[in-house]
Every structure is written in structure tokens, then in C-alpha cells.
UniProtKB/TrEMBL annotation:
Top-rank taxon, per record: Bacteria
Span of domain Zinc finger CGNR: 137-180
Entry-linked SUPFAM superfamilies: Jann2411-like
One Pfam entry name: zf-CGNR
Protein's name according to its UniProt entry: CGNR zinc finger domain-containing protein
Length: 185
């Protein structure tokens, strides 16, 4: 599957957004307007004006809707959720070349709110995975104490953990120690 620069940026943004949700007692990754401003700047989200508390509320609601896409149990459910997100954002595809990037497509309408911007661009990025028959690449970490979202871009669709250096290694070390203890025991 060919993933363009814009699609990759949108996928990174949607995964990071979903992973800001407070789960299992963790703090909200978007606790205030400053955190939203940092998120927007960190993901180089263009064409958003001054952010307000209304934007923060809208992005938090959107975050839950994107999380539902990652939790969807089948493609039809995921497609319906994505369709709702994209339609509600008033998607308006247009070609643009800004900030040193070559021609690419923006799916949000000019002057759209940051929530509509994210819903349109990130929703379309997820839609491309559904269309390509690759929805199963939208995953949650399989570590028992971690449910972070990620997109499995491995060649053979075998990635199981959000980060192999943390969750993956931690589980492999625990399994190794359990085997050693059993063998010694």
C-alpha cells in the first residue's frame, strides 16, 4: 500500500490524538488549551486560527470517535464511523502547495475548525486503509497493561505492540524470566 507523506502525517496525528485519551487512570493528554496548541504545533497542522476552549472540547469529542474506529470489530462498522466523521467535517478536497511541500490534497474546508480539519484529513487517511482492505492494520497494543493505538505498517502485518522497545521488550523479558524460574524450580 502506497502511503503518501500527507497520509502518514494524518495517521501519526490520529494515533497520537487517540493516545491522549485518559485510560486506566492515566492523565488526559489534552488537559488544557496549551496542550492542544502543542499538539497542533507538533503535528504541523496548518490553516487553524486561534484555538479556544470550544476547540479543545470538540477535539476531545473527536478523539473518542477516532478511538471507536480503532475499536471497531469489523470493517463495516469502521467504515460507517469514518463516513460519519468525514461527512460531519464538511470535507472539501482541494489541491494545495504550502510551507515548502509539493502539491497535495487537503480534505478540510478553508477556515475549518481544528476538529473539522482533523476529522477530514485523519478520517480520509483511515478511509484509505479501509479501501485498501488493510483495516486490520489499525490496532491497539497487545501488552496487557497498554492499550495504545498504532498503525501496523510492517510488511507482514505482524506488529503486536505500540513500541517494541518498551511494551514488546517488557513482555519478552517477563516471559524469559518466567521460563527460567520454571526451569530452575
Amino acid at each position: 500500500m502506497l502511503i503518501t507523506h500527507d497520509t502518514r502525517c494524518a495517521l501519526d496525528a490520529v494515533v497520537d490524538l487517540v493516545n491522549t485519551a485518559p485510560e486506566d487512570g492515566a492523565a488526559d493528554g489534552l488537559p488544557d488549551l496549551g496542550a492542544l496548541e502543542d499538539f497542533v504545533a507538533g503535528h504541523r497542522i496548518s490553516d487553524v486560527g486561534t484555538l479556544t476552549e470550544l476547540d479543545l472540547s470538540a477535539v476531545r469529542r473527536l478523539r473518542g470517535r477516532f478511538a471507536a474506529v480503532f475499536a471497531a470489530t469489523d470493517t463495516r462498522i469502521a467504515a460507517g464511523l469514518i463516513n460519519e466523521l468525514v461527512a460531519a467535517a464538511g470535507t472539501t478536497p482541494r489541491l494545495t502547495d504550502h510551507d515548502g511541500y509539493d502539491w497535495h490534497v487537503h480534505y478540510f474546508a478553508p477556515g475549518a475548525s481544528v476538529a473539522d480539519h482533523l476529522a477530514a484529513d485523519c478520517g480520509m487517511a483511515l478511509a484509505f486503509f479501509v479501501v485498501a482492505g488493510e483495516r486490520e492494520r489499525l490496532r491497539r497494543c497487545e501488552a496487557p497493561d497498554c492499550r495504545r493505538a498504532f498503525v501496523d505498517l510492517s510488511r507482514n502485518r505482524s506488529r503486536r505492540y505500540c513500541d517494541s522497545r518498551t511494551c514488546g521488550n517488557r513482555l519478552h523479558v517477563a516471559a524469559y524470566r518466567a521460563r527460567r524460574k520454571e526451569a530452575a524450580g
